[in-house]
Amino acid sequence: MELAAGGYVVEGSDISSGMVAVARNSARDRGLDVRFHECSFQTADTIPGSFDVVLAMFAALGYLTHFADFELTLRNVAQKMAPGGIFIFDVWNGAAVLPQYSPHKVRHEADDKRKVERVSRTTLDEIAQQAVVKFEFRVEYADGTVKHFSENHHVRFYFPQEMVDLLTALGFEVLLRCPFMQPEKAVSKDDWNMTYVVRKMSDRPTAAHQSQ
Ligand SMILES: C[S@@+](CC[C@H](N)C(=O)[O-])C[C@H]1O[C@@H](n2cnc3c(N)ncnc32)[C@H](O)[C@@H]1O
User: Fold this and answer.
1) In principle, which of 110, 125, 129, 151 could form an S-S bond with 115, CB 3.0–4.6 Å?
2) Which domain holds residue 136?
């Protein structure tokens, strides 16, 4: 939405029809012209056209817990990238997840419309590099109505160098690796979310290009 508001031509996609509906309503409310697709990463090659930037934020790639799906996704992304285009995504950093994760956490947020309590219970599989987070929400609205719902999130985490090696093996080069939303900093073992900015190796300028 921020990029569309800034004048960029933007399209959005999610596997979840509910999330796409939320995004569509948000774009409409803000008067933004954004085209949406209800598409998985694994079928993203069916989205027409190509893009200068492909962006997958908030650890969305972490939801691909099987390597075959990750590999297919990167192949689809490469296919959708315009020449010289970049792919920006973030994933959980295992070096931070292992020491920092809490098996039980309670968080409260409130605004003038509602109070939200979120209880999370997390189990880690350190060997498979995966976390299962079970969220239970209690939302109390200003008129006194209370709603309960729960969500299960199954997320793969990666180690910083492991991701560089995977990207390289799949034909990408890393232009930048940084903590989420902090491009001026280097990733450390304390940063839970790490962002990668990558491009296809085949798009790397050659010596011939540079001398032109
Ligand atoms: C943590 S949310 C981030 C949401 C969104 N990127 C945003 O900025 O609000 C992760 C998102 O990944 C989506 N997702 C999970 N598995 C997916 C898949 N295989 N293909 C496409 N989207 C997927 C979920 O539906 C969810 O909307």
Assistant:
1) 110
2) 102-155
Residue 124 to residue 78: CA distance in whole angstroms:
31
Question: Ligand 1 within 6 A of 202 CB?
Answer: no
The model's pTM is 0.93
Both tokens of residue 69?
Answer: 């799906």
What H or E segment, with its residue span, contains residue 151? strand 146-158
pLDDT in tens, 136-168: 999 999 999 999 999 999 999 999 999 999 999
Q: Which of 2, 37, 58 to mutate to test the pocket of ligand 1 (most atoms within 8 A of CB)?
A: 58
Looking at the structure, tell me whether residues 148 and 66 fall in a common domain: no
Degrees to nearest 5, angle at CA 40 with 179 and 6 = 55
Taking phi first (over 0 means left), then psi (-120 to 50 degrees means alpha), and beta for anything else, what does residue 52 get? alpha
pLDDT given at position 15 = 97
Same domain, 145 and 131: yes
Q: Which amino acid is at 116?
A: V
